[in-house]
Protein 1
Amino acid sequence: MLKTLLEANNLKFDESFYSDCEVFKSLLQQWGKIHNLSGRLTSSDIDENILDSLYPLNFIDSYESFADIGTGAGYPGLVLAIALRDVKSYLIEPRIKRVSFLNFVKASLKLDNLTILCNRVEEVKDLQVDLITSRAVTNTSLLLDITKNIKKENSSYLFYKGSMLDEELEIAKINNYKVVNRKDRNYLYIKGK
């Protein structure tokens, strides 16, 4: 059960969050079978992806706005927007099929804090956020480069990375970062100044 899983990882939310997650799971399973949104559609796989999306809330600073690059089926951006309804959330996803799904979930859950942009991040104008997130999109150097236009002077980054992170960090030559590991996931948190 999702609540047990999250609470075992020091993540506590009110009951309305869990009802929203049930709606999200149901919609993802329905749409996912038709539109190939995610390879993992069992309830336990979705719960694990929700935990993966939310786990960094244990160690990152709070923020007032964020943009998730290449949100896909909703990880991590949509899940963060559901959990943090007081945070201005932007999902940037270029694929129309996925944007349709994200908009349907937004409408179903009445996520007033959420804006979904059907675009590539390099082409987004007039948006600057406190935190930039991304999961399984591209390497760290390229992510830092293609998100420059949505970055504030002191924006932070949270990238959900796999086993190639050490090589990526060597190439990216960044300072002031922290890596937190959980299972096969490396969370790269680059704190804004």
Protein 2
Amino acid sequence: MKQVQVRGIVLLAFVLFFSQLYGQSTNGSIGGTIEDVTQALLPGVRVTATNVATGIVSTLLTNETGSYNFPNLLPGQYKVTAELTSFQTETRINVEIGNAQQLRLNFVMKVAGPQQSVEVTVFTDSLVATSGASVAGVLSEQRVRDLPTV
């Protein structure tokens, strides 16, 4: 009887230990609030978090209380941008997220001045991809026949 109790306790400890281990995550989060210079909260602000190493972009809008939250970000360095019409765009670079870190990043946005326009000219030879993946497929004979003719 005593041996059965010991086995039961060991089994229970094993299950509890590994259930806690399974729930661990290395992903972090960035969240905060966005307000203007008068401390009024700003809903509908477009917030973008870009992982500098991977180029993965996450975008969301602030809720009615001016809050935002990126809950599941890979550890690494991020660029976080807040954009809203009639306000100056605010950008934070070199935002470092560690393993399971929860970072609070608040923004204060200023009203934009006169609109400015910047024109960037890019030569087409710099747009040619030197390497990359492509998607290809084979059309059936029936699909080729169904294509519109000019």
Protein 3
Amino acid sequence: IPTITPASDRAIMIRFSTEISENVHEQVSYFHKILSEKYDKKISNISPAYNSLLIRLEDSVSLWRMIAKLKQLFNEDHNVTIKEKQTIKIPVCYEGEFAPDIERVSSYTRMSIEEIIHKHTKGQYLIYFIGFSPGFPYIGGMDLKLETPRIASPRINVPAGSVAIGGKQTGIYPIQSPGGWNIIGRTPLKLFDWSRLKKPALPMGGRIEFYPINKKDFHDNQV
């Protein structure tokens, strides 16, 4: 049973665990769906994270009554199982201007660029949740040998499609935005569309497979 506590006078934090794992993610995903459907008139917004859900209530809803309802819900039996995931295959050009920080990652990890590309494309990736900016996926499963600290001075504009490493994580910038992660490549795919918010290209719970392409392939596949 998760811990349920007030996060403010209009918000509730539901924490399932202190660990980050696929099993915990399944609980977050399952109850995100259940709560969105069961309490759609009472909840204005739900923000999933690695091991928690933050619920923001409508103004007319009593915080303590909702906490009581949630405790009752979580005391019921639920069959949470790991489901088959959608796999999204993403081409990435790890060359030249598309990879301005790959040399930095190489220097820090003491791996060749070829090794970095090999390890990055062999990762078993899961999208735990979306956050930071529209469509930005928080992805788990990167080989920890690729871990590299964020750059000292974040860029004001990171091009859409940039693939990067920040600490123990890898990620993709679906839209142009500021960012401080190490950019190691770019995909030609358009990964965020304001007109398709209910069917995102990178959905929470999806799996990602990266594969390398050259500059010609990048321009041939650019959307």
